[in-house]
Structures are given as C-alpha cells and as structure tokens.
Amino acid sequence: MKKNIGTADRVIRILIAALVIALYFTHVIGGTTAIILLALSAVFILTSFVGVCPLYLPFGISTRSKNS
Questions:
Q1: Would residue 55 count as lying in a domain?
Q2: C-alpha count within 13 angstroms, C-beta hemisphere, residue 53
Q3: pTM for the complete prediction?
C-alpha cells in the first residue's frame, strides 16, 4: 500500500495518543469514554508507524510531501 501520512501528521497522531494515555493513567478520563479514546489512540499509533491511513484512501488524501 502506498504511504499517505506525512511526518507532521505522524507526530500529531502520536502526541494525541500520548495525551489520551496520560489522561487515562492520571484518572482524568474513565469508563466508556476512556475505552473509546484508548482504542482510537491505538489506531493512531498503529497508523503512525505503518504510514497508511485507511480513511484517507477513498478520498485521495495524502499529507505526505510530493518529494517523498
């Protein structure tokens, strides 16, 4: 699969995931909200490391620079 996530997008996804994880472990979020946000964080981390966002594919979106 062709990579469609740029460096800035990867960094933002990882920072958001880290924030959600920190909020969970400091007991700021809990219950169903925490489960949903942690699952979303896992997806953010996975897509950041793989470099492909499946939701970008149908819309033809790519945050990767043209030089890459």
A1: no
A2: 19
A3: 0.87
Residue 1 lies in a domain: no
Long-range pairs for 55-60: beta carbons < 8 A, 24 or more residues apart: 56/4, 56/5, 57/4
Rounded to an integer, what distance in angstroms lies between the CA atom of residue 41 and that of residue 46?
9
Provide the residue type at 47 as one letter: T
Looking at residue 68, its pLDDT comes to: 55
Per-residue tens of pLDDT for the chain, all 68 residues:
889 999 999 999 999 999 999 999 999 999 999 999 999 999 999 999 999 999 999 999 999 988 75
* Domain presence at residue 57: no
For the chain, the 3-state helix, strand and coil shares in percent, each to the nearest 5, are 55, 0, 45
- Give the residue numbers spanning the domain of 20: 7-50
